[in-house]
From TrEMBL, chain A:
<feature type="transmembrane region" description="Helical">
    <location>
        <begin position="179"/>
        <end position="198"/>
    </location>
</feature>
<feature type="transmembrane region" description="Helical">
    <location>
        <begin position="236"/>
        <end position="258"/>
    </location>
</feature>
<protein>
    <recommendedName>
        <fullName>Transport permease protein</fullName>
    </recommendedName>
</protein>
<dbReference type="InterPro" id="IPR000412">
    <property type="entry name" value="ABC_2_transport"/>
</dbReference>
<dbReference type="GO" id="GO:0140359">
    <property type="term" value="F:ABC-type transporter activity"/>
</dbReference>
<dbReference type="GO" id="GO:0043190">
    <property type="term" value="C:ATP-binding cassette (ABC) transporter complex"/>
</dbReference>
<feature type="transmembrane region" description="Helical">
    <location>
        <begin position="152"/>
        <end position="172"/>
    </location>
</feature>
<keyword id="KW-1003">Cell membrane</keyword>
<dbReference type="InterPro" id="IPR013525">
    <property type="entry name" value="ABC2_TM"/>
</dbReference>
TrEMBL record, chain B:
<feature type="transmembrane region" description="Helical">
    <location>
        <begin position="351"/>
        <end position="374"/>
    </location>
</feature>
<feature type="transmembrane region" description="Helical">
    <location>
        <begin position="243"/>
        <end position="267"/>
    </location>
</feature>
<protein>
    <recommendedName>
        <fullName>ABC-type xenobiotic transporter</fullName>
        <ecNumber>7.6.2.2</ecNumber>
    </recommendedName>
</protein>
<keyword id="KW-0067">ATP-binding</keyword>
<dbReference type="Pfam" id="PF00005">
    <property type="entry name" value="ABC_tran"/>
</dbReference>
<feature type="region of interest" description="Disordered">
    <location>
        <begin position="417"/>
        <end position="458"/>
    </location>
</feature>
<keyword id="KW-0813">Transport</keyword>
<dbReference type="InterPro" id="IPR003593">
    <property type="entry name" value="AAA+_ATPase"/>
</dbReference>
<dbReference type="InterPro" id="IPR027417">
    <property type="entry name" value="P-loop_NTPase"/>
</dbReference>
Amino acid sequence: MTTATPAEPAATAVPGAYATLTRATFLASVRDRTTVFFTFAFPLVFLVVFGLLFRGQKVDGGLPYINYVAPGVLSWGVGNAALFGPAFALMHWRRDDILRLIWRTPTPLPTVLGSRFVVAVGVGLSQAVLFTAVALLPFFGLHLDGSWPLALPLLVFGVAAFLSTGLVVGSLADTPEAVAAIANCVMVPMAFLSGAFYPADLLPGWIRTASWVLPLRYLDDGLTDVLAGRASFGSLALDCGGLAAFTVVFGLIAARIFRWSNRT
Amino acid sequence: MTAGGLLDLRPALRPGILVGPALTRGPAVVHLLKDPVTGVRMEVGAKEHFIITRLDGSRSLAEIGTEYAGHFGARLGDAQWQQMLRLLSTRQLLDGGRPVAVPPPEAAPRKAASGLLSGSTRMVADAPALMDRLHRATAFARRPAVLVPLLVLAAAVPVAVALRLGDLTDQTRRLSHQPVTLAAAGCVLWVSLGLHELAHGLVARAYGLRVGEIGLRRVWGVMTYLYCEVEDVQFLDRRGRQVAVAVAGAVANLLFLLPCWPVWALLPDSAQALPFLGGLLLLGTAMALLNLVPLPPLDGYKILGYALGTLRLATESRTFLTVAAAALRPARAGAPDARARLRRYPGRLRLVHGAFALCCAALALAVLAGAGLLCRAVLPESWEAWTFYLPLAVIAAAAALQLLGLRFAARRAAGTAPPAPAAAEPQPTQTTPPVRQSGTSPQQREKGDMKPQPRPAGTAIVLDGVSKRYGEVHALDNVSLTVGQGEFFGVLGPNGAGKTTLVEIVEGMRRADSGTVSVFGLSPWPRNTALLRRIGVQTQTSAFFTRLTAWEHLETVAALQGADRAAARHALDLVGLGGKERSRVDDLSGGQRQRLALATALVHQPDLIFLDEPTAALDPEARRSLWTVLRDLRGEGRTIVYTTHYLDEAEALCDRVAIVAAGRVVALDSPGALIRSMAAPARLLVPAGRITVEQARAVEGAERVLLEGGEVVIETRHPNKVLIDLAALVDIDAIQTRTATLEDAYLRLTATPPPAAADPADTAAPAVGTERSR
């Protein structure tokens, strides 16, 4: 009798679903050549532009300029990719009824999100590796401190925070244009106010204080400290904690406004 | 056709066909031919050219044959004439008074796919018109008094640059340390390249040629350049003009630099702009001159080809080299043959091809040496021992990679030969794919042999008094129905009748406002995963994971459903998409998408299957083969709920049909019973010539008699009786009987359509093929 067949493999279903979904998400991301190009090329373009503009200058904080620009642009690039990708995907999945398809399967939504998270972390780490490799060239002159592995947890927490922001954006927007508009409205001011494009130490005092309400500030701050070798576990934990808090807040908002279908 | 008749023909070439001057391709003399209407270009040999140019409608083939014999010393036989004429007529070159068939765009060589990073964008909507305007605007320059000084000045630029090479090189080196200024110089040179293309177009236009397209071409996102397509340069009658078109670009580049020269020469040594201008002059001149290097695809190669009157010089030189090499090898078996081939090259052509090959080799060596020197200059000192060989190593690595890639591609192509189950099936084509071959043909499996299948006891779906409203709209209004397990249940209704809502309530996506819903004895609301596992839904919008292939999509869905890959494979083969598994879902045709959506619904082998117009985008053949799949599914004991607009489909497939209108079930029964309950009259059709309307009216049992499109139509509820009476009046084979169809019932039940269709008896032959004649 056919009724019995689907029940049996269900016990082993979830890990399989997880791996396959991760693979599918990965393939879909990699095959979007345009996005891949901009994901990796944009931060590099900014690095080149700022590198050319401010080569050799020093900032009050005592570090060479590149030590501010590189972590800033990197955190902006990672945050951007982690926000835009899931936001677009969520909007498309809802619009194309893929969410309904998932709804009908026994696979729980956290599995779907988990696979998305793994891919986003992968993208963020590859961005970081490529970007750092370029910044290390003699032309830019970044020096990597031995404590760089501390950047890994920061990146993971950062990706999580921006992914949950992306889920909010993807739940709000119903068209690609709306996703781009909302996400840009979020990211561009944040990049300037958090010191991603120029040293936070140069910002007016009140903006510097106010910028701690932005997730990018925590990522930027943490990465700057790690790359300069002045990170302590305390400050790092503070940055990671800030990012985790943003993840929770935006995750809750996303869960609240999540829709399975545009028609419901 | 007799031989005499053939030679008396006086065919003429279609007016407007372009015939080019004599060219050589390898050892052969060829002429280019172009049909301006179809845009087709072809090459013909000297003999064909001799004949074609004499086909003017006034000369007979016999006369041409005599001239031909006088010229080539050989007569043409009938068979050769016939072959020649057939060739000309299939190429549509003869003036036959028939309209010329232009090949559809698909048949034309397809352009490379245009994406964001690579491809081309048309910039000018009407390039010929733009060139006409430019042609008029530049009329003043088309005089020797202007052209000669301009050409002299253009020639003077490289000379002047050569004289001051030291200064310029120095300034260019300084420029290379100012990235922003260097980028600005690059932008200026880019504009100069655009003018280069326009110059080609302008000169071509001046000689009466057509400019096809002006646009931007992108290569891998790193290079973007303007292009200007000039057609038919080789049809110009003088080689000098052909060369002029090709050389115009480089001249434009040099003229563009002209204003920079005096500024550069007058500026004091300390001027900041000096490196910019100096670099511009040097790089611009180098760009113009490099373009004249005779290597494909540069202008220099074209100039050489036009000047020598050769086609595909590079390829032919390679051929010549292989032939020459084979001929020189003494002990080889093929040598005499090769020597014969070599002798076919006249002395001049041997020189041309040999010299070109030598020239290419020299250039390649020069480039390699230059690259080596550049590497040594740029790379760190410590690598000195290596640098000179770096370009060689890079080329070797690239060649190895290409080889690997080719082998991989070949292996992949071999691997694509479909796996075992798919191999047995005919490869589905793009348009009319057979979904599945089964022992019996769809025709045999028509309604007639729909035997009652062994049906499992019990019910699949029970709806009792279900209502659902959105605001003021009653999507469902007190709906009660029962679907038995293993039943093929049709849901018919106009758009917006509530079909979708009905399905969504049954699968538990929406909650009914009132009433009870039970599926396999369980309540679907709230989301019941145990139940969802037994339900498969085909969506109307064909929801697929973007940028995945059909197989990857199905594999993912299978994993989501907790099924294994074998299940995905089974579903793919079931719908006959095995041959398309490597296609991206975005590239599938409408019918293929429908079938992938079906496979998506079936992948976890559900017991209850909701299909929403699965045959909507299919052609009739694919539709029929899908029916076979559906009947097999039903044969396996699965319950199918089927919404469709095709009434013939519902009639052929469904055990029972619910007709839904305005949120209510207005009828629910087997298709046959529905038709009978309508008591719609049957229609007997007799050709109007055989019987008059009066005669027909006199037949007992005839309820209405109409004259429709050359046929007398008799409507009756007692067709057998009327048929017997009619047989006395006309030949019984001339009478057609049309019984009522589900469409009649459907139209009568669903609301009040336009008055003409309100009474099914009044509808003319139904648009959908629902008639059954006997």
